[in-house]
UniProtKB/TrEMBL annotation, chain A:
Keyword Iron-sulfur in record: yes
Organism per entry: Methylocapsa palsarum
Name the UniProt record assigns to this protein: Cytochrome c oxidase accessory protein FixG
One GO location term (cellular component): plasma membrane
Database matches in SUPFAM superfamilies: 4Fe-4S ferredoxins
Entry keywords, A to Z: 4Fe-4S, Electron transport, Iron, Iron-sulfur, Membrane, Metal-binding, Transmembrane, Transmembrane helix, Transport
Transmembrane residue ranges: 43-61, 93-114, 166-185, 197-218, 352-370
Residue ranges of every copy of the 4Fe-4S ferredoxin-type domain listed in the record: 266-295
Entry GO MF terms: 4 iron, 4 sulfur cluster binding; metal ion binding
UniProtKB/TrEMBL annotation, chain B:
Gene3D superfamilies linked: 6.10.280.130, Cytochrome c-like domain
Cofactor note: Binds 2 heme C groups per subunit.
Pfam families (UniProt xref): Cytochrome_CBB3, FixP_N
Complexes and interactors: Component of the cbb3-type cytochrome c oxidase at least composed of FixN, FixO, FixQ and FixP.
Positions that bind heme c 1: 126, 129-130, 268
Main localization (coarse): membrane
Location(s) in or outside the cell: Cell inner membrane
Membrane-crossing residue ranges in chain numbering: 37-59
Protein's name in the database: Cbb3-type cytochrome c oxidase subunit
GO terms for cellular component: plasma membrane
């Protein structure tokens, strides 16, 4: 249980008159500003990830006259997803399945190597909360000033600061929602429409929804999203092990904790004395309000800010840095037992397994992507009737054929049926017959459906089911796709 | 659960958290308070449900249900969706109703629309008898083959769908296969002979001991007026082609005997009053393009 939860429970206990309370109020957290290595890493990642998020829709990528020229675009109207040189059709959503598996495995691998790297540095909730805290701090002052103001009355200054803070938050939130909708429409056009109030209502609705969620989650909910709403901390606790690097308080070095003076005196006298001066700086800077000295805990997002805070203090009291550091359970335990630390083992069953799965899934996806054809053929045999006997006794099967042209210019294809000697092929609808084959013309980036009838020659002994092959050839490039199907007979 | 205020709160020694006082073989339940905002939202959803019950259909009654003050109903919502769909399809539907059947099949856009509309209308109205893909069944013609009783050209199919067969529609097809046996025109032995002959018409081998010759003679007298001298049928009269492979009621002798004895009079409903012109045309084109159209 974190210090903050304990305080909140005690308050609730008191309010409930000593009996066990049903619910407890939230304890507001006032994270203190801090500087250091990890703070700098977090700033850099914040700038980089936000820059990608806000600017990516404006990156152009020319694909041809009939295609959108936005590098990353989810085109819901035309059911297409564009990512630079990749264009994905709805029937190819398995790429997304692959991406999701890759994302999960990467998350697991990160966790097996160095704990909650995602939570501490990359999660949107962390990034936007960090940004909102920066705004809060620059308008309302640092931890002590904010705490003091919160305890005091509503002065004019406090009011104007609150108004300024919330206005800035809403502005950022609005911009966040605005950037979101740009991924679903041509960005420059939509920006112009938004500026002239001619954008479609759906754009305003989505901006509104994301403005609200950003403002609410990053401004008000903050660490509660991690502790109450997010499933990952629960899963993470089950996936970690004693060799994973985690932000840890090295209790072997820190305990017994005490004031610098007292511990110096103890040390001089040769008595056991820890390096922790119990200054609570690690708690003050923590964005989730935990005491890292309680050990690994669900509320801790492992952002590393307590390392920076502690290092600064250690420097001042003249003790070695990294009393709080990325360390493994094994080594802390060994040192506590007086044994030397071991080098961190990155090669373990779980890291190898996760890395292997990433490699396998990644390779499959890469293979699928590089060998992805520019044309598609789908054949579906009629279910009712399975076959037809014509008045002269000949057997005929019918198929629904859908061809797709994934290129940006119209193309002509020839469809043939192989595997049934002397079979007659007939097309209904868009197909034109020529020399015993069908000729179809598919428009740019379009599909075309046609009904194909295949009639077996008379007086040929037919098995109940025979394998046949539909082949589709681009008349210009000779690119060929083949699809296997069956010819059924009584 | 609400703790009894009289009993003092028990604190778990290990974690320092109050317990609910429950004890199962030494396992105690920690009483962790819920976040207050969570409780507020929970209560909020209950309050919301009250307004929801007032606004929307909610409570089942003896033979009805509360309608809600907003007057929303799922049936009404479906009606609106269908109206919106009709409006979207409006121009194409109008074009379909206006164009001739031949013109529809020549225009790729109209053809695609007609086949899609026809497929849906077929599934709704025709599939119960003719099968999901028009494969037919005993007494219900297969619409994929090239065997047609009343004609397989576009206009013939349109006429059959619109006015039906023995449907009571004055413009509908009407004819009857007489009950030669039941009405005493032919004896049992004669019927057997005719059946033997008809059996061979579609190229099937004659059964053992069959008197094909005497059957042929009877056929020329009693059947040829409608089915033709060679049994090739007559689409004007709706007399099936008996030389074709496959038959509406089956081609074994027993079935032919049954047909000759009791006659046949299958009914196809008239759809002109139930479906609009565009749908009738779409159905016609769909059936025509199943593969057997003439």
């Amino acid at each position: 249980m974190s210090l903050r939860q304990q305080q909140s429970r005690e308050m609730a206990l008191e309010a409930a008159g000593g009996s066990s309370p049903m619910h407890a109020p939230r304890q507001q957290i006032y994270p203190q500003s801090v500087s250091g290595v990890f703070r700098n890493i977090k700033w850099a990642l914040l700038v980089a990830t936000l820059a990608v998020y806000y600017l990516l829709p404006f990156v152009r990528w020319h694909r041809g006259p009939s295609e959108p020229s936005q590098a990353v675009l989810v085109d819901l109207d035309h059911s297409r997803f564009y990512f630079f040189f990749i264009e994905i059709w709805p029937q190819e959503v398995y790429y997304f399945t692959g991406l999701l598996i890759l994302a999960a495995m990467t998350l697991f691998l990160m966790n097996a190597v160095a704990g909650r790297l995602w939570c501490g540095y990359l999660c949107p909730q962390t990034i936007w909360t960090d940004l909102f805290l920066l705004v809060e701090r620059s308008i309302e002052g640092d931890r002590r000033e904010r705490m003091k103001a919160a305890e005091g009355p509503w002065t004019r200054q406090r009011l104007t600061r609150a108004v300024r803070k919330h206005a800035t938050w809403l502005l950022i939130a609005w911009w966040t929602g605005g950037a979101w909708v740009l991924y679903f429409n041509d960005a420059p056009t939509l920006v112009r429409q938004l500026a002239t109030f001619t954008a479609p209502p759906i754009a305003w609705i989505w901006i509104g929804i994301l403005t609200f969620t950003t403002y609410f989650l990053a401004g008000h909910m903050r660490e509660q999203v991690c502790t109450y709403l997010c499933p990952w901390p629960r899963i993470q606790a089950a996936l970690t092990d004693e060799w994973a690097l985690n932000v840890a308080y090295r209790y072997d070095r820190g305990e017994p904790r005490g004031s610098a003076k007292k511990n110096d005196a103890l040390r001089l006298a040769g008595a056991p004395a820890g390096d922790c001066v119990d200054c609570h700086q690690c708690v003050a800077v923590c964005p989730t309000g935990v005491d890292i000295r309680d050990g690994l805990q669900l509320d801790c997002i492992q952002c590393g800010l307590c390392i920076d805070a502690c290092d600064a203090v250690m420097l001042k009291v003249g003790r070695p840095e990294r009393l709080i550091a990325y360390d493994t359970d094994v080594n802390i335990r060994r040192r506590a037992a007086g044994l030397p630390g071991l080098p961190t083992r990155f090669v373990r069953a779980r890291t190898v397994l996760y890395a292997a799965m990433i490699a396998i899934v990644g390779s499959i996806m890469l293979y699928a992507l590089t060998t992805r054809g520019s044309q598609g053929l789908a054949v579906m045999h009629d279910r009712n009737p399975m076959f037809v006997q014509l008045s002269n006794g000949a057997i005929r099967n019918a198929y629904t054929v859908r061809i797709s042209n994934k290129n940006t210019e119209p193309r002509r294809f020839m469809i043939n049926v192989g595997g049934l000697e002397g079979a007659q092929i007939e097309g209904i609808g868009a197909a034109v017959e020529k020399d015993g084959a069908l000729i179809l013309t598919a428009g740019p980036d379009q599909t075309l459906e046609t009904r194909v009838l295949v009639t077996a020659p008379l007086n040929v002994q037919l098995p109940p089911s025979q394998n046949i092959v539909f082949s589709m050839v681009d008349l210009k490039t000779s690119e060929t796709v083949k699809v296997a199907d069956h010819f059924l007979a009584p | 659960m609400s703790p009894d205020p009289k009993t003092p709160v028990k604190i778990d020694a290990l974690s320092g958290v109050p317990t609910t006082g429950h004890d199962w073989d030494g396992i105690k339940e920690l009483n962790t308070p819920l976040p207050r905002w969570w409780v507020i939202i929970f209560v909020g959803t209950i309050v919301w449900s009250i307004f929801y019950v007032i606004a929307y259909p909610a409570i089942p009654l003896h033979s009805s249900f509360t309608k809600g003050v907003l007057g929303w109903s799922s049936r009404g919502a479906v009606g609106k969706d269908i109206a919106a769909l009709r409006a979207t399809r409006g121009p194409m539907t109008a074009a379909l109703a206006k164009a001739s059947l031949q013109a529809i099949e020549k225009d790729p856009g109209l053809l695609e629309f007609a086949r899609a509309q026809g497929k849906a209308a077929f599934a709704d109205n025709c599939a119960p008898c003719h099968g999901a893909g028009g494969g037919g069944g005993k007494g219900y013609p297969n619409l994929n083959d090239d065997i047609w009783i009343w004609g397989g050209a576009l206009d013939a199919i349109f006429a059959t769908i619109s006015h039906g067969i023995r449907s009571g529609d004055p413009q509908g097809h009407d004819s009857a296969m007489p009950a030669f046996g039941r009405d005493g025109v032919l004896s049992k032995a004669e019927i057997s002979n005719v059946a033997d002959y008809v059996h061979t018409l579609s190229g099937q081998p004659a059964e053992q001991g069959a008197s094909v010759a005497s059957g042929a003679k009877l056929f020329a007298e009693d059947c040829a007026p409608c089915h033709g001298v060679k049994g090739a049928g007559n689409q004007e009269l709706g007399a099936p082609n008996l030389t074709a492979h496959g038959s509406l009621y089956g081609s074994d002798k027993e079935m032919i005997v049954q047909t000759l004895t009791n006659g046949r009079g299958g009914v196809m409903p008239a759809w002109s009053g139930r479906l609009d012109l565009a749908t009738l045309k779409a159905l016609t084109v769909y059936v025509h393009t199943l593969g057997g159209g003439q």
